[in-house]
Design brief:
With 97 residues, this protein is of the alpha+beta class. The chain has 3 helices and 4 strands, in the order αββαββα. It has helices at residues 9-18, 38-55, 82-94; strands at residues 23-25, 28-34, 60-64, 67-72. Strands 1-2-4-3 form a 4-stranded antiparallel sheet, covered by helices on one side. The radius of gyration is 13 Å and the shape is globular.
C-alpha cells in the first residue's frame, strides 16, 4: 500500500477553514480538547488509540487534568496528509459534547 503524500498548503488551509478548533502547527494539525477531569482525558485518549491503531497512524497526545492536546502529522511524508485530515475528523467525533 502506498503511503500518503504531503498535501499542498492551500488544501490544508481550506480544510482548516471548515474545521474550527484545529490549527496548523509547523507541519502538523493540532487541537486541544476540554474534558471533565483527568479520567475523561485518559478515556478520550484510549478511544483515540483504538481508532489510530485501526488506521496504523498514531497522533502525539498530551493529556492533563481535564484536557487533551492532539497533534496529527505524517512523519514519513514530511507533513500533513489526507490521512491526517481523516483522523482529525475522527478525533472530533470521539470528543465529548
Amino acid at each position: 500500500m502506498a503511503r500518503p503524500q504531503k498535501l499542498e498548503p492551500n488544501t490544508v488551509d481550506a480544510w482548516l477553514a471548515a474545521h474550527p478548533g484545529w490549527a496548523r502547527e509547523g507541519e502538523a494539525l493540532v487541537r486541544g480538547y476540554k474534558l471533565e477531569d483527568f479520567g475523561a482525558a485518559v478515556a478520550f485518549t484510549v478511544r483515540l488509540a483504538f481508532v489510530a491503531d485501526k488506521r496504523d497512524h498514531h497522533p502525539d497526545v498530551l493529556i492533563g487534568w481535564g484536557k487533551a492536546r492532539v497533534l496529527w502529522t505524517t512523519h514519513d511524508a514530511g507533513g500533513i496528509t489526507q490521512l491526517d485530515l481523516e483522523l482529525a475528523e475522527a478525533t472530533d467525533k470521539l470528543a465529548p459534547g
